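During the no-cost extension, the postdoctoral fellow (Dr. R.K.) reprocessed legacy sequence entries with the updated structure-token encoder. One reprocessed record is reproduced below for audit purposes.
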Amino acid sequence: MQSEIHAGRGVIIAGLSDLCPVSIPTRWISDSDALGFMAEAIAVRPALAFDTEFDSFRRSYGFTLLLIQVFDGEVVYLIDPLALSDLAPLWRIMEDPAVRKVCYALGEDVRLMKTQGCAPRNLVDVQVARQLSNRTDAGLARALEEDLGVILHKASQTSDWSKRPLTEDQLDYLTNDVVHLFRLEAGSLGYRTDAYLSSVFAEEMQLLEAVDPAPHVVQLTRAQVKKYAEPAQEALLSLLKVRDGIARALQLPPNFVVNNDLLESLMDQRDAFLAAPFVRGFHPKVRARQDYRKAFLDAVRAIPDEVVPRVRTSTRTREEKVAFRQARLDREALVMNKVMPPLEASLRARYEEEVVRFLLRGVRKTIGVPEPDYAAMRPYQWALVRPYLEAALPAPGGS
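Re-encoded structure tokens follow.
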């Protein structure tokens, strides 16, 4: 069993005159008493640094929380969700708007926390702060190296975090993920000298808090919808649902049950599969269970006798198609020549390159189509673009 208190081998804290190893106390939290003690200790802190480790259909079925790291400035707490049935004491602190939560690139982590019933508040994403302070868009390891001279050892980055006990290297990796975040944030506050950039940061954090849990839904890909006519779509979706149900029962990623390419190949090889089923490509537990085999066989038998590729039909005349293509080219030219250049020039007169790149990320692609989805942009991006777009568009009724 993992010991409750782990004395780390030392974390290199850059910025000290001799770059000496500093031992960071590390506590392993795997029972309700330890969790309650930790919650009392960190609830009075004005700020916490945190991160999570999770599996998203990579080694097991589902979007699974495996570890939570919390640093209160003195102690790193490693919380084991696999051993704790109730994380409410921690979730109450994560939802407390009086406590700042310093993190790095936390979008997926917030989605996962919301599936656990926690809606974190007062988030500070240092990745966003860095870019608004004219630092490069970078992952945590690169940011630490660029800003603090800290080099993280990545050997444990792809660890199976569901395994217990953790190794010394894994424990050090988890500690390093959070112990530097306060200093990284302290060097990424340049945006605060500008009221507009401060408002952009606040909007980004509000949007981060508002992300959807994004539940798992079995559905066809866009390519599959384009490829198959409706009866074949229904048959393929049925196959995907059978696979998902078996994956859930076995607690395996669906692709471990049978991979996507082989599953889709059944659409064209129905009869060959029925003549010699489960010869290759299926998980041994599928081949060994009669009920799993039957579920797949029934779904394969439902595939239409002839899978006809979807024929894309259009009600547009040739002239309308030509007009549509021209409208797309005109829109691209409008954006490239009349909208983006003055907008970028205006921003570059006030801000440095990385800031401008952050403010306008994805904008060109979004507005460069005949029927743009303006809602796909951040509100502050739409506010930036709109005056230039309206100035470049022909007046109603104009030539």
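Residues 95 and 120 are 4 Å apart (CA to CA). The two ends are 77 Å apart (CA to CA). The remaining legacy entries will be reprocessed before the final report is submitted.
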